[in-house]
Amino acid sequence: MSGRGLARLVPLALVVAVSLTACGGGDDADPPASTQPATEGDSVALTVTREGGEFTPNGERVELGVDQTLVLTVTADEAGDLHVHSTPEQEIAYEEGTSEHEITIDRPGVVEVESHEPDVVVLQLEVR
Predict the structure, then answer these.
(1) Distance between CA 99 and CA 90 in Å, rounded?
(2) DSSP string covering 32-98, please?
(3) In terms of C-beta density within 10 A (0-12 exposed, 13-18 middle, 19 or more buried), how is residue 30 classed?
(4) Which of 14, 39, 82, 126 has the most C-beta neighbours closer than 10 Å?
(5) What is the pLDDT of residue 51?
(6) H or E segment at 109?
(7) Per the record, which residues fall in region Disordered (predicted)?
(8) 106: Cβ–Cβ under 8 A, 6 or more apart, which residues?
């Protein structure tokens, strides 16, 4: 290939490379809408659903500020508890139906919220 032919291909190759980079799907995608909390003033609201022994969300990470209140609405087809592995640990007992609970974490880090019956991590609170 002559120098001129190569000189014409270089800009085309750059355009193709930039286009492919812009279209690439990365791991930075937004989490599903069900795990995106609603921020209201100084608190964050999130709904957890337990149906047929399964939870939604299921292990997703939610950002929360230090000392920011998480208002957790639990809708469940049977009673149970959630364990918040913070320091000190917190336990949320919920009844069948819909109930509302508040959680506040006073230290940065990742805090798991899990059920022991069934044994599943429901949320990971990324506290900053």
Answers:
(1) 16
(2) PGGGSPEEETTEEEEEEEEETTEEES-SEEEEE-TTPEEEEEEEESS-EEEEE-SSS-EEEEE-SEE
(3) exposed
(4) 82
(5) 97
(6) strand 109-116
(7) 25-44
(8) 66, 67
pLDDT at 33: 37
Identify the residue whose tokens are 């800009």: 11
Q: What is the pLDDT of residues 84-109, one digit of tens each?
A: 999 999 999 999 999 999 999 999 99
Of the candidates 109, 102, 111, 115, the residue with the CA atom closest to the CA atom of residue 44? 102
- In sequence order, what are the residues at sequence separation of 6 or more whose Cβ sits closer than 8 angstroms to the Cβ of residue 1? 9
Q: What integer best gives the mean pLDDT of the chain?
A: 80
- Nearest residue to 37 (alpha-carbon basis) of 66, 67, 69: 69
Each domain of the chain, given as residue ranges in start order, spans 34-127
**What homologous superfamily is domain 34-127 in, according to CATH?**
Cupredoxins -  blue copper proteins (2.60.40.420)
